[in-house]
Design a protein that fits this description.
Blueprint: H1 5-31, H2 37-56, H3 60-78, H4 85-106, H5 119-130, E1 174-175, E2 178-180, E3 188-190, H6 198-231, H7 234-267, E4 270-272, H8 274-290, E5 295-300, E6 305-307, H9 308-329, H10 333-338, E7 345-354, E8 357-364, H11 371-380, H12 386-390, H13 394-398, H14 422-432, E9 436-442, E10 446-454, E11 459-467, E12 470-475, E13 479-486, E14 491-493, E15 496-500, E16 505-510, H15 511-514, E17 526-534, E18 537-543, E19 545-553, E20 567-573, E21 577-582, H16 584-594, E22 610-614, H17 618-630, E23 634-638, H18 641-650, E24 655-658, H19 667-675, E25 685-689, H20 694-703, E26 707-710, H21 716-727
Parallel strand pairs: 5-7, 12-21, 16-18, 22-23, 22-24, 24-25, 25-26
Antiparallel strand pairs: 1-2, 2-3, 4-6, 7-8, 8-10, 9-10, 11-12, 11-19, 13-17, 14-15, 15-16, 17-18, 20-21
Length: 728
């Protein structure tokens, strides 16, 4: 899909209309001797923002002048140079040049049509930054040049919450969204943009949501009219039929208009991610310098748009992650050189759109997260026992960093180490933004945090289901699928009803029972399952019926109801009937506590057999773990073949259970590698897979598996009996 560059150019012009007056006012203040640090920082930020935004849009002349201006302001900021009449004159020239280029863009010029930046001006700015003599007309004419009237920028007197609360005064030639143009007739040009206060825009969107919900109720009235028509006497039926048809046609014709109107209202609240991402690059350099480190920060995907409500809340999590990367991740220059790395660390922040989600990834090339350090800190803080830690996969161990109060920092400083931050990031992402966060790390090579969040919290696709007499909603991003099947297809896994769904064990729970709601009598035949998911976790919820599926306006919970962990918001159904939206992450946690495995009578033993379970499905690993622990086995989990091989070689296990289809290394390769090792040459290895073909079974036996169990015919008693027989 081709990128509509004009829309971004217009946004840049609007942004420049804020920054250029600040530059003029700031340079004027410098001329009056007000060279305080905050004033210079404000000037630097404006120049830096113009440089970053113009570079993204390939506005090379603007980028060049803004960059040279930034160099001079940077010299003022670090104290290597002091403002002089000559350098202040250069800043005035640069501001005028920027204003002229932006004016041409505002009048419709394309990026290719802009004139080149004045090389003499850029050289003079950079020479002044390095302390060289500035030989320009500005040296003899320190006073600011008369503002040129040829700058018809769209002045926007009312700013949003993201702009400074007290904008600097604007140039006298620009007033009330009208700018003079240098024509003989002195025609006036009106700006084609206007700023609207966010609370007013939010009110419009809220009212549009109410209108949309009320309009949807008209469909119900059409159905009622059709029902009345059938019950009328034949003589009146034709008149009612004509009325019903006209009503239906009217409702359908307005459907598209209503949806389009609401979508356009929502688009007005969308902002580019650059609002929050671009300042992070400068922040990274400043924070790294305060830590005695050096870093290059690269930002990509700033043009991706999100609802302003999400943009506002995303800033704090990203700052937490940035501080974490600089303090915990990147090493000091001497340590990096000793490890064969360049002294300057690399930090990248990248965003892209994935369907109805936006993904933001922050990656560093630092020391990575060492799992053993996490385990030791978890033990020291008594967050988990040694037995619990040994049962965790590497990924689950990594995610301990999100526990409240957890920190691997050996010393508490003003910068970090108090164990507050990463838990805040996770809570904000999951509870406030209806999103998700994942961490991946390679010791010695770096760490990656991946954030997934919806495009908007104001309106989302929602599935409404019936559970007993209660209607409940689930947002579509958390819905995997709807499945209708017989309860006879469920298997018993340590007392937990379980469905085998495409090579994965999925726990089954009655939604009404889970929420302690009155439930309908169980159907003697098929049941309807709503399969919800969060990351790798899945849960099949037994529901009574699917009520509706459509885009709906999400209403936040009122303050007095925000303590409810299982409810994330509300939607309106019918005549203003409110329906609760289930908070899927909290629902999954509740289902874990709800499921209590039935303990079998295992033979008492002082040293239980140790079993390694390898499967890329979190659900499958957990269910197999519950089954084996119920029979007295000590279980360790691994999430793929490579992870399983590393754990098998690091410790000694009495048996290995493995899936076949896994990333990194599949089960066949894992079995073959284990058989090459003397420790596992004769240890029991059981393959548990959904592959039913005889050729796959033969291959499993050829690589050295002792047993081959198909998940479709899985029976926990068969698994336990097979394991007992192989262990002797």
């Amino acid at each position: 899909m081709a990128l509509d560059i004009r829309r971004f150019i217009q946004r840049f012009v609007e942004e420049a209309a804020d920054h250029l007056p600040r530059l003029r006012a700031g340079v004027g203040a410098l001329e009056q001797g007000e060279a305080d640090k905050e004033r210079i920082n404000e000037l630097f930020r404006s120049a830096h923002t113009l440089k970053g935004s113009s570079r993204m849009l390939k506005l090379a002349p603007i980028t060049a002048i803004a960059h040279s201006t930034e160099e001079l302001l940077s010299a003022f900021r670090d104290g290597s140079q002091a403002p002089s009449s000559a350098s202040i004159g250069l800043l005035y020239e640069a501001t005028d040049a920027l204003a002229d280029l932006v004016s041409q863009l505002a009048q419709g010029a394309t990026p290719d049509a802009l004139p080149d930046a004045d090389p003499a001006l850029c050289q003079a700015l950079e020479a002044a930054a390095s302390g060289e003599r500035v030989d320009t007309a500005a040296e003899t004419t320190p006073s600011p040049p008369t503002p040129q009237p040829a700058t018809p920028l769209p002045i926007t007197p009312q700013s949003t919450a993201l702009s400074p609360s007290t904008p600097p005064p604007e140039p006298p030639v620009e007033r009330n969204n009208i700018a003079a143009t240098p024509t003989a007739s002195s025609a006036l040009t009106l700006s084609d943009t206007v700023r609207v206060r966010m609370d007013r825009l939010d009110d419009v969107i809220r009212l549009m949501g109410e209108v949309l919900s009320g309009h949807h109720h008209l469909h119900t009235l059409v159905e009622q009219a059709q029902g009345l028509e059938k019950n009328l006497p034949e003589a009146h039926r034709s008149v009612m039929h004509a009325f019903t048809r006209e009503l239906k046609d009217s409702v359908l014709s307005h459907d598209a208009l209503m949806s389009d109107l609401h979508e356009r209202a929502l688009q007005m609240r969308m902002l580019p991610l650059g609002v929050v991402l671009d300042p992070l690059a400068q922040m990274a350099r400043e924070l790294a310098q305060s830590l005695g480190k050096r870093v290059d920060c690269r930002v990509r995907g700033s043009e991706i748009e999100l609802d302003r409500q999400l943009i506002d809340r995303l800033s704090d999590p990203l700052i937490h992650l940035l501080r974490n990367a600089l303090d915990h991740g990147l090493e000091p220059p001497d340590e990096r050189q000793a490890a064969g790395k360049p002294p300057r660390g690399q930090l990248s922040i990248e965003a892209w759109q994935d369907g109805n989600w936006v993904v933001v990834e922050m990656r560093d090339d630092g020391a990575g997260i060492h799992l053993e350090a996490i385990r030791q800190k978890a033990l020291a803080k008594q967050l988990l026992t040694e037995e619990q830690l040994s049962a965790l996969s590497d990924q689950e161990t990594l995610e301990l960093i999100f526990l409240p109060g957890f920190s691997t920092k050996s010393m508490i400083t003003d910068f970090s180490g108090r164990g507050v931050g990463m838990d805040v990031v996770k809570r904000t992402m999951m509870d406030e933004l209806s999103g998700d966060i994942q961490v991946a790390s390679d010791p010695g090579k770096g760490t990656r945090f991946t954030l997934r969040l919806p495009l908007s919290l104001a309106m989302m696709r929602v599935l409404l289901v019936k559970s007993g007499d209660t209607t409940l909603g689930v947002t579509a991003p958390h819905v995997a699928e709807l499945v209708e099947c017989s309860a006879d297809n469920f298997i018993d896994a340590a007392g937990q009803p379980t469905l085998i769904l495409r090579n994965e064990f999925v726990p089954v729970v009655n939604l009404a029972e889970l929420l302690e709601l009155p439930s309908s009598p169980a159907s003697p035949t098929n049941v309807l399952l709503l399969v919800v998911h969060q990351r790798q976790q899945k849960l099949a919820l037994i529901v009574d019926a699917l009520v509706d599926e459509r885009d709906m306006v999400i209403k936040p919970l009122p303050d007095h109801l925000r303590y409810l962990p299982l409810v994330s918001g509300m939607v309106t159904q019918g005549r203003n009937a409110l329906v609760s939206l289930l908070h899927v992450p909290a629902l999954l946690e509740r289902a874990k506590r709800h499921a209590q495995p039935i303990l079998r009578s295992a033979e008492p033993t002082d040293q239980p057999h140790r079993v390694l379970v390898v499967d890329d499905s979190l659900n499958t690993r957990e269910i197999e773990k519950d089954v084996l622990e119920a029979w007295g086995y000590q279980v360790t989990l691994a999430e793929n073949g490579r992870d399983g091989l590393n754990k098998a070689l690091a410790e000694t296990f009495d048996a290995v259970l493995t899936d076949v289809e896994m990333p990194v290394m599949d089960g066949f390769a894992l079995t073959a590698r284990l058989r090459e090792n003397d420790l596992y040459r004769h240890k029991p290895i059981i393959i548990i897979t959904s592959r039913e073909k005889e050729a796959d079974r033969q291959r499993g036996m050829e690589v050295g598996a002792d047993a081959y169990i198909v998940k479709g015919s899985f029976d926990q008693n068969n698994l336990v009996e097979t394991l007992k027989a192989l262990l002797g």
